[in-house]
Amino acid sequence: MTGLFITFEGGDGSGKSTQSALLTEWLTAQGHTVVHSREPGGTDLGVELREIILHRRGYIAPRAEALLYAADRAHNIATKVRPAIERGDIVIQDRYLDSSVAYQGAGRVLDATEVRDISLWATEGLLPDLTVLLDLSAENGRERIAATRDVYDRLEAEKNDFHERVRNSFLALAEAEPGRFIVLDATDPIETIAAAIQTRVVALLA
Ligand code: TMP
Predict the structure, then answer these.
(1) N or C: which end of the chain has fewer CB within 10 A?
(2) b/e for 52-67, b at 16 or more Cβ within 10 A?
(3) Parallel, antiparallel, or unpaired: how do β-strands 4-10 and 34-38 relate?
(4) pLDDT reading at 151 higher than 90
(5) Shortest-distance Cα residue to atom 6 of ligand 1
(6) Residue from 77, 98, 155 to probe ligand 1 pocket by mutation (most atoms less than 8 Å from CB)
(7) Can you tell me the distance from the alpha carbon of 40 to that of 100, in angstroms, rounded to the nearest whole number?
C-alpha cells in the first residue's frame, strides 16, 4: 500500500499554510487519513532546527544554511513522511526540496543542481506526487506579511530582488516538471484556489 505525497510551494505570504490546511480538512472529511507536515519544523528536531535557521542572530554561510534545511528534511522524511506514505496515508506538506532549489539555489546563488542533489541524498530520492505552486510577486508577498506582523525572519528580511529570483526559480521548476506541478495565482480568492487544488487531487486519487 502506498499513499500520496503532496507539497505546497511558493514565496513568503503566498497562502501555502491556508491552502494546505483547507486541503487537509477536505480530505479528512472524506475519510482519508492525512498527515500534515512542514519544512523546516515538521518534527521535534525540526522545530529546533527551524529556530536556528530562521531566528538565530548573525550570519549563516549559504552552504551551512543549505545543509541545515537538508538535515531538517532528512529527519522529517525518514521519521514522519516516509512511514506515513508506506502506511497508505496522504501526506500534505508545506515546502519541500523545491524551496531549497529556489531559496538556496536562486536566492543565495548556490548551484541549483547541487542543492537539489543534496536534498535527494537526504531523502533517498523521494519526490512528491503533486506540488502546488502558489505564485505571487515579491512585492505582493511583502505587503501581505507586513499586513499581519512587523517582525521578519532571516529569509523574509531579504530584499525584493532575492524574492523575485526565488519566484522565477519556482516558475522554472514548474515549467520543467509540468506533470508534478500545478501553478495557481495566489492573488485569486481563497475558495477559487482551493477548488482548483481539489480538482487536481481528485484526478490524482482516481
Ligand atoms: P515558512 O515555514 O514560514 O514558509 O518559512 C520558511 C522559510 O524558510 C521561508 O522563508 C522559506 C525558507 N526555506 C528555505 O530557504 N529553504 C528550504 O529548503 C525551506 C524548506 C524553506
Answers:
(1) C
(2) ebeeeeeeeebeebbe
(3) unpaired
(4) no
(5) 40
(6) 155
(7) 11
Q: What is the pLDDT of residues 83-103, one digit of tens each?
A: 999 999 999 999 999 999 999
Give me Rg for the CA atoms of the chain: 16
CATH number assigned to the domain comprising residue 128: 3.40.50.300
Minimum CA distance residue for ligand 1 atom 8: 155
Domain count, the chain: 1
Among 66, 196, 206, 186, CA closest to 138: 186
CA 84 to chain centre: 18
Q: How far is the CA of 40 from the centre of ligand 1 (A)?
A: 6
Q: For ligand 1, what atom is nearest to the CA of residue 97?
A: 18
Residue 183: give the domain boundaries.
4-205
